Amino acid sequence: MKMFAGKVALITGGSSGIGEATAIQFAKEGANIAIAARRTKESELVVKRILDLGGNAFSIKTDVSLSQDVEAMVDATLNQYGQLDYAINNAGIAGPRCTPVADISEEQWDEIMSINLKGVWLSMKHELRAMGNNGEAAIVNVSSIYGTKPSDIGHAAYSASKHAVIGLTKSAAADYGNIPIRINAVAPGFTLSEMVNPDRPGAAERYQALISRHSSMNRFGKAEEVANAIVWLCSKNASYVNGSVLSIDGGSTTRLY
Ligand code: NDP
């Protein structure tokens, strides 16, 4: 029998990259999937991939920074499937890069905090009320290597948002551990996706320099490698893992910068 047969997984930012790979992995293990993201066309392509695999999926257009969207996202999942077992709070943006702290605009600061941080809190707020108390529910929040160490590329707003995701995750794990709803975070290193795309003009050299410095394995991660860890954290194999931050970074966190 498949690991997540009859279970329901909600993935924010499921329209591309790590979220898409995670949705596919959950579906392969038998979970019913809800994809929440802003782009309808991309989300529907992921839904189609899952249906083509013989799985079950639907998408709901969601901006995780908007309270009413997040509430509707969870309600739609309950309406569709009648339960919520796993929530992957993965939606995020990069925000300003190569920008020293004093040059970050207030608008940029507010945007990244409302998506990367408030979006995770709002998602948990509504997901937690929908999750059962059978002891099997789990949440994984997607932080970053820059949530565990300083950004060295003028990426302070992003780094601050991802540090905060870890604080929020650990505190929520303490709040809900007695049910238990297990709540963990992953901290991916540089992973190929729309956010980290070395094929963008001028990007290859910059990313290669970062990879040489950051990854002991001297390569980018693949979205599937992050997805595998997320799926494991939700599985019964991780039944005593709560409030942890799992690095998936080829060894980046063995280095200070
Ligand atoms: P992508 O850009 O491919 O994915 C980002 C996802 O977030 C998209 O599906 C996007 O969908 C969604 N999203 C962005 N803003 C919103 C919003 N306001 N509401 C709902 N969905 C939103 O990049 P990744 O897959 O790499 O990123 C996924 C997560 O992984 C992010 O949180 C990122 O910070 C984190 N991460 C990535 C790393 C990397 O190297 N790639 C390293 C460490 C962490 P849409 O545009 O359709 O809304």
Topology:
Blueprint: E1 8-12, H1 17-28, E2 32-37, H2 40-52, E3 56-61, H3 67-81, E4 86-89, H4 106-130, E5 138-142, H5 156-176, E6 182-188, H6 203-214, H7 223-234, E7 245-248
Parallel strand pairs: 1-2, 1-4, 2-3, 4-5, 5-6, 6-7
The chain binds NADPH dihydro-nicotinamide-adenine-dinucleotide phosphate.
Can you tag this structure with a few keywords?
257 residues, alpha/beta, Rossmann fold, seven-stranded parallel sheet, 43% helix, binds NADPH dihydro-nicotinamide-adenine-dinucleotide phosphate
Q: What does this protein structure show overall?
A:
With 257 residues, the protein is an alpha/beta fold. It has a single domain (8-248), classed as Rossmann fold (3-Layer(aba) Sandwich), CATH 3.40.50. It has helices spanning 17-28, 40-52, 67-81, 106-130, 156-176, 203-214, 223-234; strands spanning 8-12, 32-37, 56-61, 86-89, 138-142, 182-188, 245-248. Strands 3-2-1-4-5-6-7 form a seven-stranded parallel β-sheet, with helices on both faces. Helix 2 (40-52) links the parallel strand 2 and strand 3 (56-61). Helix 3 (67-81) packs parallel to helix 4 (106-130). The longest helix has 25 residues, at 106-130. The model has no long low-confidence stretch (mean pLDDT 95). Bound molecules: NADPH dihydro-nicotinamide-adenine-dinucleotide phosphate (NDP). Residues 12-13, 15-19, 37-39, 42, 62-65, 90-93, 115, 142, 144, 188, 190-191, 193-196 line the site of NADPH dihydro-nicotinamide-adenine-dinucleotide phosphate.
